[in-house]
Each structure stands twice: as C-alpha cells, then as structure tokens.
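## retry 2 of 3
previous attempt timed out at serialization; input unchanged, resubmitting
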Amino acid sequence: MRYIRIGSALLLLLALALATGCSRDPAVKKQKYLASGKRYFEQGKYREAGIQFQNALQVDPKFADAHYELAQTYAHMGSMQSAYVELMRTVNLNPDHVKAQVDIGSLLLANRQYDHALERAELVLKKDPKNSDALVLKANIMAAQGHMDEALAAMKIAVDAHPEKARPYLALAMLQSSSKMFDQAEQNFRKAISLDPKDLTAVMAFGGFYESQKRFPEAEQQFKSAVALDPKNTSARAMLARDYILQGRRADAEQSLAQAKKDMSDNPEGYRLLGDYYLAEGNVDKALAEFESLSKEHPKDAKTKKAYITLLMIKSRFDEAGRLDDEILKDNPKDAEALVIKGQLLVRENKAKDAVDVLQKAVKMEADNAAAHFHLGTALSASGDQGRAETEFREAARLKPNMFEAQEALAGVALRKRDNDLLMQTAEKIIALQPRNSAGYVLRSAAFFGRKEPVKGEEDLKKAMELKPDNPVPYTRLAEYRISQKKYAEAEKLFEQSMEKNPNFVEGLSGLLSLYAVQKNLPKALARVQAQIQKAPDNSAFYTMLGTLQLASKQPDQAETSLQKAVDLNKMNLEASSLLAQVQVARGKADKAIATYEGAIKANPKDVRSMVQMGSIYESQNNFKKAEELYRKAMEIEPDYPLAANNLAYLLLEQDRDIDSAASLAQLARSKMPNSPGAADTLAFAYYKKGAYGLAIDLLEEAIKKVPQNATYHYHLGLAYDKTHDRAKTRAQFEKVLQLDPNYAKAPEIKQKLELLSKG
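## retry succeeded, writing output
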C-alpha cells in the first residue's frame, strides 16, 4: 500500500508538471486565448473576446489567426478602421489568408475604393478561380459601379461553381432584389435557405426582403424563424419587433422585447432592447424608468449605467448624472465613454477648458470614437477655438456619417463660411436622418437662398414653421428674405413674432435692428433694444447691441456703461470686450482697455483676437517687446491667424529685424486676407525691404485705390518710387502724405527728402 501511495503521488506530481509545462508553452497558451476569445465572440461578448485575442497576440504578435479574429471583433463593435488595420496585419503575416483578403476587399468596397477592392478579389481568384466568396465580392463590386448585368452574370458564375453552397444564392438573391427582379430574388432566397436551413443571415435577409415588399406577415414568419434558430440573437429580436411596429402592432413589439429581456437576462445587448425601444419611440419617461431598473439589476454593467446617465441628462438631472459617471470613472479612469459624458457635463457648467482636457483624453484613448470627436469640437467651440472645433466636427462626421449632431455642427460651419455646397449636403443629410425635425429645413432654406432659389427656400421655411410652430428661427429667416424684397412691414411683423416666442432670442432682435438700419431709424432701434432689455434684463448680447447703437448715436459715456454691463453679464462675450476696449482707447483710457483685454483672455485663454488688439495698444505705446510677445502667443495658439501674422511682420519690418521671416508672415497674412489693403501694404513693405520695388509698387497702388486717405500707404509708395528713381512720382506721394497728415511721424524725413528733390 505504501508503494501504491508513493506511485500515486508521483503520478500526481508528473501530471502537475506536465500541466505546468503545457501552460508555459507559448504555442498552447496562445491557442487557449484564441479559443476563449472565440467562445466570447459566439456569445456576443465582443469586448471580452477582443481582450482574449489581444492576450494571444501578446504571447505571439505574429499570430495571424488572432489578428483575423480581432478584426472580426472590431467589425462587430463598429470599429471598422481598427478592423481594417487588423485584417492588413493578418495578410501581411499570411498572404494566403483567403478570408482576410476577401474581408479587406469588402471593406474597400464599402468605402467605394472599387479598384483596390477588385485587386483583393482577383488576388484570391488567381489562386482559387472558384472561390465563392471572392466571386461574390467581384460581382458586388460590379454592382456598386452600376454594371448590374455584369454583376448578375458574375454572381451566376459563383452559383454555378458552387451549386451546393447557400451563400452564392443568397448574394444573387440580394442583387436581384436591388434590381427589382423580385420573383427571381424570392426564388433564390428560398434556394439558399433550402441548402442551409440554419443560415441565420439568409433567414433574416429573406425577412428583410419581405419587409421591403411590405409583405409584413411573411416577414414576421422569417424573423420568428430567426429567433427560433438563435434565441440569443439580438438582431433577430429587434427585427421582429420592428416588423410588428410596421404592422401597427406596438403592443406585440413591446411584448416581444420584454420576452427578449427575460430570455437574454445574461446578455446586455438583449436585456437593453426594451429600453432602447422606449427611447426610439420618444417615450423618455418609460426609457428612464427601464434603464434605472436595469442599472440596479446589473450594477456592474457600465454601458447600461451610461444609458441611464444619458437619460438623466436629457431630463436635466445633471447632479445625479455626474455622480453616476464619477462612479464609472472611479472603477475605470480610462473609460472613454464616461470621459465623454464628463466632458459634456463640464461644458454645461461653462468649464469649456476643463472639458477640452477631458475630451482630449477620450480621443487619445479611442481615436475612432465619433462622439468623443464631436463633443471635443463642441468644447473647443465653446472655448473660442473655432478652427480646431471644425476639424473635430469633420472627423466625427467622417467616422459616423449618420451622426445627426455632427452634421448639424458642420452645417453651422458651412453657414459661417458661406459654403452653400457643404450646407446643402449637410441639410439633406439632416432631413434624411430626421424628416420631422424643423432644423434640417431651416438649414436647407439657407442653401437655397444662397443658390438664388428663393421660392424653394421659402417653402422650406414654411415647412419648418409647420413642424415646430414655437421655433423662432424660421420666422427670422423669412423676415430677412422679406427685407431683400423690401417688404419691410411683413419683415418687422415676422421679427416681432420670433421675439414673442422667445424674449431672449438674440437673432430676432438683431434682425429688427438691421431692419431699422435699412430704414435709417436709429432712435427707433435704440428704443426697441431698451424695451427688450426690460423683458430680458440678463441678456449680455442685448447690452452689446445697446452699446453699439449708443456709439452710433454719439453717446460714448452711455455706450461704455452698456458694454461694461454686457461683459459683466458674460465674460465670454468677446464682441462686447473688444468693443468696450476700443471705446476706452478712443477715450484715452488705454490702461483700462488693456485691463478689459486681459479679462477677456483670462475668461478665454484661446482668444487670439484680444491678444492681437492688446498688442496693438502696446505697439502704439512703443512697448514693442510686449506687443511682439502677444503677437507670437496668438500665433502659437492659431498659427494661421492673419492679423497676428500681419502685425508681427510689420513690427519686424519697422525694426529692420529678421526680414525673411517678416516677409513669410506678410505673405501668410496676404493669402488669408487677399482683399485687405493693410495686408497688401505690409507685404509691399516687405518687398521694399528685400529690394523688389516693382512688386511693392503694384501692391501699394492697389491698397491706395481702396483707401486713398491712408498716409502710410502713400509714404511707402513714395519710398518705393524713390528707389526706382522716379522723382516726380516720389515727390507726389510725399506731398500727399503731408497733405493728409501734417504731423505724420515721418514728416521731418519727408520734408528733408522733398528739399533734396526740389534742388534737383
């Protein structure tokens, strides 16, 4: 017995040693991770699957199969760019990986890179001429290019090559459906399913086919079959519910999703379907109650908690939302979605700078997160950095073309830039995404007016009013059109209607003032602003308007008071800050103006305009060092800011310093402000310093044509003519300088030069 016990112990130790050895074998370890990842993938747990595939790649970075499975995981998570990267890594490691080659071709096809997609299909077909997946890809490429006859012929080749396979029949059926060959399509859908009755994709596609034909009961049967084939498939459940909705059977839809919640109590995508349905139906209260319940039932499910937080934000329950979001970030500080929520909350608290910092972390962690880019754009815009904001909005729209908010933000960019093509494109996208939303029609109307199609523009505005009568915007847009028609009474009525709908509506009051300006009725404009301030006493923009009108009425004391009030109400009101500082400078209060600009920059550290304007004050005080610091700081923040480039260039030229850099800066300013006489003068001065007198003369003559009373332009032109030895023109320009400004700074030098010229 003793020997038996020893033998058993030895066997146990040997087994443990073998097991330990196997676990340390990299080949075994990576296969275990791969198998585990596949199991998670089949359960729809894509994040967990991705982690396991990445673990396999840590063991062996050249494990092509793990790269391929990770690509599939990214694709199911919607991260197509990451999926593409992993597919490319797969084929770089294993060029004969047929599935990866075909998948790359499919992604290229989706991005309309037809030639490159075809290269992938041909690469596979060269080695395997009868490869069904490659034949189907090739046919789909032809179809996408509009060569439907060739596509159908190619697809039939795939079917003939593999009559025993279901997928070619399915692909042929889908092509025939898109070509309105409905009878043939139905026949091939049936054939595909007969060959593989358990092919969930085919069954769901057949249901979608019936749905497109409005044969809803038949579609219902297919979706029920899909649910029976895979009760855990969330897409099948969602499509069945949608079919019920299309049949007007909302109670059945709700019941089916409630059943899905029970059947998939362990699958977050499944138990959230009912809450998502309530939200899609616009029933925020029911959705809120559902997600509140779910977050309590599944406290570790961060995604459900985030959905609940979003609903809390919709209901303006920001404190609760913030506490829950902080809980998520406490558990996982690198949760990009939670950081995006944090950024949104900070923007709402007027902490745009802090929001930018948080959202930049989110973007760094998930570069393909469209929501992160969009909200970063919003935060940048709120902080005054419109250039970078536009970049982020464009990236969000590129990553997710159907993102309504990104398209709306881009429409705002298009309006600011007067880009009618971009505006029409984004407006059409918005209308397609939300046809009952008035915003899309208002935006498209602006594009129509920009294209000189006012009838269509007016139709869109009336549609917007019909959809949302309380929206003041379409009233002001139509009023602006009435002004262009000189129908002033109608315009005034429309503007007043917009103000009735929203007493704080800045655009409505601004429109009224523009109407009074056309009518040259300044007293009426002043009275109207003052009356509106009585109704909305905390509106900073209204005080800015009042101060502007008081300046026009030659009431500088009152204007300064009103503009100071505007700044006090809103430190971010850069227009009021700038105007107030200009008034202070004009009234000999340069120190106060500097303090005003400093306050604006403190409130908005990216405010390059205030930096440049404050630099100009320092320059006028001969504090060139401080002026240069401000110009350079502005250009660090916004390297292409033309006013900073122009002023810095001129300062360097005046001091005969770094002429080449000054010339480059002047060229930048000129390229960004081609119609500015000031930019033309600066570049001309640079050309003069570099000895290019002819170029300088051309630019200065252009500047003088636009601003004939500017003494400096005439002085510079006189200098250039002097270098070309044109005595008569030199004399004429210098005499003009003294005529325009007898006390011109360079007057002594000019007089001395004129004496020399008179002596011949």
